[in-house]
Amino acid sequence: xxxxxxxxxxxxxxxxxxxxxxxxxxxxxxxxxxxxxxxxxxxxxxxxxxxxxxxxxxxxxxxxxxxxxxxxxxxxxxxxxxxxxxxxxxxxxxxxxxxxxxxxxxxxxxxxxxxxxxxxxxxxxxxxxxxxxxxxxxxxxxxxxxxxxxxxxxxxxxxxxxxxxxxxxxxxxxxxxxxxxxxxxxxxxxxxxxxxxxxxxxxxxxxxxxxxxxxxxxxxxxxxxxxxxxxxxxxxxxxxxxxxxxxxxxxxxxxx
Length: 256
What we know:
The protein is of the alpha+beta class and 256 residues long. It has helices at residues 7-15, 64-67, 70-85, 103-116, 163-179, 221-224, 232-235, 241-251, and strands at residues 26-34, 42-49, 55-61, 92-99, 120-128, 134-140, 155-160, 185-191, 203-209. The protein has a 6-stranded mixed β-sheet. Strand 5 (120-128) and strand 6 form a beta hairpin.
């Protein structure tokens, strides 16, 4: 039975082959010692600089036990390195390197950290030979934001003279939004309660669009509707292009 080489061997070989992770990456030090006047310090497996001269903290994990500690370690190391060298937050990156089995432990916590962290965080799955020499590295796709019930920035407001018009509008909005594959939709009734005769349209329906469901595929608007939809170039400029197209689908036929 072949055993996995010790982490020290893999680290030494990897430090001489950082180009497997990305071009222009160069070694500064191995097991770089960090001190911490407030508590325990630590050792960065490989400290490097990239082709833009940014600092890169590289952490190597070859066992599940150490993989479970990765999130705590890298956040501590980045904080200590920044304080030691007075590095701006946008001038430091993190690369976590692990063998394929360890990504079962790493993927979920690192994905969560990457979405909410101000530092660039990337993961690579390393393939080695029997002696621990790295053969190649594959960029790991971190998990996207879960499609939970969150509103997007796509909002709209309808104005009405009478409440019954608003009620009819809401029913039409729900039907048209479903055609555009919108899973979550919030409608808020707003009523003006001041002196009468001042506001022309005292009743409003405020809409907040949730995520359009990717499980149902792209809405059929491109073939069946005559309203404007985003083209490929425009879609790249929008954070929520499907939801914006859904708004156009609704407002093309539902009016206040």
